[in-house]
Amino acid sequence: MKSRESLVRLKAFQLNEKRRQLAQIGTMMGELERMCAELEQQIVAEEKKAGISDTNHFAYPTFAKAARKRADNLLGSLRELKVQKDAAELAVEEADADYAKAAALEERDAGQRLGRAG
User: Fold this and answer.
1) What is the crossing angle of helices 2-50 and 62-117, to 10°?
2) Residue 115's CB: how many other CB atoms inside 10 A?
3) Helices (H), 1-118
4) What percent of the chain has pLDDT over 90?
5) 106 and 4 in contact (C-beta within 8 Å)?
């Protein structure tokens, strides 16, 4: 029953790969959140320095406008990553179930082989 053993190894590999992808998405999300927080701090500092926090004011700092746009873009990317993370979590659950099923079949086959040999 080498094919079952190969199947178990394949399912374990797929599960580990899905977990790695999920972790990678989490890392990217954390990095984007950190970047957003830094941009927000820079925006606040620039607004404080200029004394203008109204984004529609004609003298609103150009850097703050650009940083705000960048932060908005990052938040959009975070929303997209959240959708990808949800999909990746489902993929991990499915891969885990597939692995458990393959491992159970291998265990059953191993038990039958022992029963026949003994």
Assistant:
1) 160
2) 8
3) 2-50, 62-117
4) 81
5) yes
